[in-house]
Design brief:
By secondary structure, the protein is α/β, with parallel strands linked by helices. The protein contains 18 helices and 14 strands. The strands form three sheets. A five-stranded parallel β-sheet has the order 2-3-4-1-5, sandwiched between helices. Helix 10 packs across helix 15.
Length: about 450
Amino acid sequence: MKRKIYDKLVEWKKQNGKTALLVEGARRVGKSYIVEEFAKKNYKSYILIDFAFTPDEIKNLFYEYGNNLDMLFMYLQEFYHVTLYERDTLFIFDEVQFCPRARSLIKHLVADGRYDYVETGSLISIHKNVKDILIPSEERKITMHPMDFEEFLWAMGNDTLMDFVRNCFNAKKPLMDIMHRRVMDYYKQYLIVGGMPQVVLEYLQSKSFSEADKIKRDLLNLYRDVIRKHADEINLKVEQIFDTIPSQLQKHEKKFNLSSMDENARFRNYEGAFYWLNDAGLINIAYNTTEPNIGLGQRIDDNSLKCYFFDTGLLLSLVFNERELAKEEIYKKILFDKLSFNEGIIFENVVAQSLVSTGKKLYFFSKYNHETSNDTMEIDFLITKDSITNKHNIIPIEVKSGERYTYSSLNKLKNKYQDYLDKAIIVHNKDLKIENDILYLPIYMVSLL
């Protein structure tokens, strides 16, 4: 499947071996696949060492011959039956967290200069297995996320539709009814299936939401197993948060409420569990900023956060009938707008996912004043403009899934912080329009912000 991260790999190769590249991300987002595709198309030869399954005798080579790279390369060449070509061979250290010594040798391997090196690994294990090694400064990191909507369209065989959407976004023009409906039909499929490559592949082959749902539930069970294995003494708290996310997002105010799990719970007791899930790439955390101004991350309330699932398709499987497979009819009713449920949970989650996939950090604005309602407001997301000016740098975003909605919080924010704010955005399921100095943005355009 075509992935955007591929172009970043190509750009990295042009630097002619000055750094190694670490591709990190949650389990099963497609890291190993895309790196091997890159190797096949851009190098004369490559050696893929999967440290999760490679024998100990190969791992031991990195210990025994770390100071004798000629011998190391000779053994690896013979074991894998691959000819090495100077400046035209790529070594792939897959699941590098299972051989910390190989990662610690990156500094010397890069300095040697004969070959290129790409590492892949699951986030939490990479962060965990660094106790006794020196993290190489020659290691550049990029994070891989689930497939975004455009990548989903590519997988569906449509290479042009998102270009049309992008042109309309840049011109701030509506798509018009027939094209908007067509894009929304695809987008609803994306919401249901999600962006995990294994799930998308199953959907392409079977054309069945329920068959794709089986893969999603296998992945959810895999992540629970990872939590139990790697979260150590906080595994119960981590799993509790993991399973509670759908119910937390269904509240009107989606801030994570610890008291719903334990009335005596305090954030300081669960802080490590939230950070563990975030490091594992399984959630996207949004922090409450105390002022909608430049430097959103400098003004946050650490005790107030929202917790979004890293893939909306997986979240939907959590929402519907957790213990049994959701019926095909349920998903088809969602597809054709025949099922009444709280779509807000799905819409807001996919907006968070879309923003994170473009490299943005998540912030929201929540303020309560029991003395005056004018100071009580809740804004779903705040992002910073790409080009900073003296004023009007913050873009407030409200997500609306229903047919009718109010603007009370947005109006109060604009009145109080008008010098800080750029044009407000309301994300909805309708076509693009600009009205009363508000940009109404169809949900499939969020990734273009």
